[in-house]
Design goal:
Layout: H1 2-17, E1 25-26, E2 36-37, E3 42-44, E4 50-52, E5 60-66, H2 71-87, E6 92-98, H3 104-113, E7 119-122, H4 125-130, E8 139-143, E9 148-154, H5 159-170, H6 173-188
Parallel strand pairs: 5-6, 6-7
Antiparallel strand pairs: 1-9, 2-9, 3-4, 5-8, 8-9
C-alpha cells in the first residue's frame, strides 16, 4: 500500500511540474509598448562556456525552460530544432535552459540523442526567479530583437503558434509597415 501511494504521489508531482495546460498561457505577440526587457543572465553551456541572453541582442530568441524528464518538453524540442535550422539565417536563435537537477550527464545524453542544434545551458533557481519563478515546464519566452519579451507560453502550445510569432518578429520594420498598410487598405474597401 505504501509503495502504491508513493508511486501515485510521484506521478502527480511529475505531472504537476510538467504542464500540458489546456489553459496554457499563449497569446499573440504583445504590442511593442507592452513588452518588458527580458532579464539578462549568465549560465554555462555544455562546453563550459558562459552564455548571456544579452549576447543575443539583435536576434529574435525563443528562450525555452525545459527538462529531459518532461513529456511536453520532448514534444517541443524537434520543433525548436526545425526553427533553428529554418530561421537562424534571418536573425533567430533558440536558447534552451535545462532545469534538470541531475546536471550535464542527463542533459548531454538527451541533446545528443535529440540532435539538438541550438545552445543549451543549465538553469538554476535564481534564473527561474528572474523570469517570474518558472513553475511549470515547458515555459517559453519569445524575445524580440531589442531584448524584450514579446510572448510567453506556459505549458505545451502548438507549433504553429510559435512559428507565427517567430515569423512576425523576424519581419523587418519596413515589411511590417507595408503589411499593416496593406491590411488597412484592404479593410477600407
Amino acid at each position: 500500500m505504501r509503495v502504491a501511494l508513493t508511486v501515485t504521489v510521484a506521478g502527480v508531482l511529475a505531472i504537476a511540474g510538467c504542464a500540458v495546460a489546456p489553459e496554457a498561457v499563449g497569446a499573440a505577440v504583445k504590442a511593442e509598448s507592452a513588452r518588458k526587457p527580458a532579464p539578462d543572465f549568465e549560465l554555462k553551456d555544455a562546453d563550459g562556456k558562459p552564455v548571456k541572453l544579452s549576447d543575443y541582442k539583435g536576434k529574435v530568441v525563443l528562450l525555452n525552460f525545459w527538462a529531459t524528464w518532461c513529456g511536453p518538453c520532448k514534444i517541443e524540442v524537434p520543433w525548436f530544432v526545425e526553427f533553428e535550422q529554418n530561421y537562424r539565417d534571418q536573425g533567430f536563435a533558440v536558447l534552451g535552459v535545462s532545469m534538470d537537477e541531475e546536471g550535464w550527464d542527463v542533459v548531454k545524453l538527451f541533446i545528443s540523442r535529440a540532435k539538438v542544434n541550438y545552445r543549451v545551458v543549465i538553469g538554476d533557481d535564481m534564473t527561474a526567479q528572474k523570469y517570474g519563478g518558472v513553475e511549470s515546464l515547458p515555459t517559453s519566452f519569445i524575445v524580440d530583437r531589442q531584448g524584450r519579451i514579446a510572448a510567453v507560453h506556459v505549458g505545451l502550445v502548438s507549433k504553429k503558434d510559435y512559428q507565427n510569432e517567430i515569423v512576425e518578429l523576424l519581419k523587418d520594420p519596413v515589411e511590417k509597415r507595408a503589411s499593416v498598410a496593406g491590411a488597412a487598405a484592404g479593410g477600407a474597401e
